[in-house]
Amino acid sequence: MPGRLVANPTDLTAAFPHGGTALGLARDMVFNFGIKTSVAVAEEWGGVVTRAFYAGERPFMASILREFDNDALNNIFPNTTAGSSSGDRRIRFEPGVSGQNRSGYDLTGKALVLLFSPRAVDRHPHILLYYAIPAIDETARLQMALSEEIGIAAVFWAGIDTQYRCYNVGKREDLSL
């Protein structure tokens, strides 16, 4: 289902970007519920599962950023700077330079409301993360081969907001900010 990512939407009834900020082109978006199940087994019957228990969730949304969109880079990477000549964001890691976020930087400081807005806004489900903590996939790399499209793997961990909400998946008219 094709769609786009929006940071901090304010009005789900409005057209894309729903009063928020579009995060550029992305592909291969996936939402993982991260549902955990704990099972009890009967040893006397050879380890057959006898009960299953819901053990919580660790949900996240992931996608591949298809372009160097200034808003996406600034919202997702821990260290970016505006280019002195172009004004566009550049990703940098200079741990000895003042103003750089170093190991141990709390990524929750970059948390945002994240919306997956499908192209068919009135037919397909939207995915709303109320407290999305952005991160770059640890195996992310910048593709620079002719046979591959440019892309940076981003992950948005679904945390809990101040109203104890995590995520909501459904039709646009059924969701609320």
Provide an overview of this structure.
It is built from one helix and twelve strands. With 177 residues, it is mainly beta. It has one domain (3-174). The strands form three sheets. Strands 1, 2, 3, 6, 9, 10, 11 and 12 form an eight-stranded antiparallel beta sheet that branches. A two-stranded antiparallel sheet has the order 4-5. A two-stranded antiparallel ribbon has the order 7-8. The protein is globular and about 70 Å long.
Chart the SSEs and their pairings.
Layout: E1 3-7, E2 21-22, E3 26-32, E4 35-42, E5 48-57, E6 60-65, H1 70-76, E7 80-82, E8 89-91, E9 112-118, E10 126-136, E11 152-158, E12 167-170
Antiparallel strand pairs: 1-2, 1-9, 3-6, 4-5, 6-11, 7-8, 9-10, 10-11, 10-12
Keywords:
mainly beta, two-stranded antiparallel ribbon, 177 residues, 8-stranded antiparallel sheet, globular
Total E-strand runs: 12
Strand proportion: 35-45%
- Largest sheet, if any? 8 strands, antiparallel
Order of helices and strands: EEEEEEHEEEEEE
Question: Structural class, from helix and strand content?
Answer: mainly beta
- Count of DSSP-assigned helices: 1
The level of helicity is under 10%
Number of domains: 1
Radius of gyration: 19 Å
Model regions low in confidence, pLDDT < 50 over at least 5 residues? none
Distance between the termini: 22 Å
Mean pLDDT rating: 92
3D shape = globular
